[in-house]
Design a protein that fits this description.
Shape: globular
Number of strands: 7
Helix content: under 10%
Number of domains: 1
Largest sheet: 5 strands, antiparallel
Structural class: mainly beta
Order of helices and strands: EEEEEEE
CATH class: Mainly Beta
CATH topology: Cyclophilin
CATH architecture: Beta Barrel
Strand order of the largest sheet: 1-2-5-4-7
Length: about 80
């Protein structure tokens, strides 16, 4: 993932996701994992940000967000958590 605007880490996805039934946009907060439909990329926010059209919140990080802050590329692995 690479840094974008000193606010989030972004990465391209292999294909665009369906946005059927999704809200028109969202107001992300720190730790949110989101899909930005206009670009077809994944974003993880490490700073608060305002409303964006086409932004769909997918989930939230529980901890470790401080590891994303700052410039430069990083490698991130996301696994699906099992239900308790």
């Amino acid at each position: 993932m690479e840094d974008y605007a000193g606010t989030e880490k972004i990465s391209d996805l292999p294909k665009k996701l369906s946005v059927e039934g999704a809200p028109a946009g969202s107001d992300p907060s720190v730790g949110d994992i989101a899909y930005y439909a206009p670009w077809g990329n994944l974003a993880i926010y490490y700073r608060d940000f305002g409303y964006s059209s086409g932004l769909i919140i997918l989930g939230k990080l529980d901890s470790g967000i401080e590891a994303l802050a700052g410039r430069g590329k990083i490698t991130v692995t996301i696994d699906l958590a099992s239900k308790p």
